[in-house]
Amino acid sequence: MNAQAETTTRPRVKRGTVPDVAFPSDNEFGIPTLLTELQGTADDEPFIRWGSVARWTVNRGAWHFYTDDYRFSGLWANPQQVVNSQCTATVEANYSTSGTMPRAAVLYDLYRKRWLARFWQSRGVRIFVDLNIHPAHREAALLGVPRGWTAYATRSHRGFPPETLEREHAAAVAHAGTDRITFRVFGGGPVVRDLCAARGWLWTMEDADLKGKKGRFTTDGKERRQRPSETAPRQDSEPRMGGHDEPRPPGTLRQGQPGPGEDVGQEVLG
What we know:
Elements: E1 47-49, E2 62-64, H1 80-84, E3 89-91, E4 97-98, H2 103-122, E5 126-130, E6 151-155, H3 163-176, E7 182-186, H4 189-199, E8 202-204, H5 228-231, E9 240-241, H6 262-269
Parallel strand pairs: 1-2, 2-3, 3-5, 5-6, 6-7, 7-8
Antiparallel strand pairs: 4-9
């Protein structure tokens, strides 16, 4: 059944009532373990980028977080916003990573993204596991994701070849133990669109590609002619995986109260 057909209204979660809980974990870092019964499906659509509409918008489809980190940083303090939107599913929060990022910081962000996902599951939201993490930290990307998990998402990055997607898909298949998985790719233009079509993956055009004549691609994914200034690559010293390429301030705990499972979080960062 298409996600848009699910019209049951989910009970609203009031601000300040989100429990400060350490969810069950299957790993040494206390990163929460997701529930296999609440995985995303191929029918979960349309996807809306978090931050592109008001946070109180009702969304009977799904969310993704392939955007600037600051746009969803408030969810750590107010995770109920996703639940109250009435969405059926969401991709995990995509915290940006880089090759020089300390492992402790990476683990803390993994803890936050899995905690948020597990909380959303506790309120009936289906989850797509985010695979968009810098290769230097890929061995930790699936901490807390049970073996047999079949719903994954990633973003095609500027400057990263299509082979990156092949490696991410291979990692997902290996973790799932089957090639019958839901693998959704966001962005990347016609090259990635055609790759997804050939491989049987789901492809979602990014919002920036849909803004009329100013967008890079037409609505059917064909690339528009652009000026040299628009196509010249940026000279970044260090590629970052995530919603943006700029450094971000260190993460903070939920405002006004201890962080979820604070004893576990301190162990990770200690």
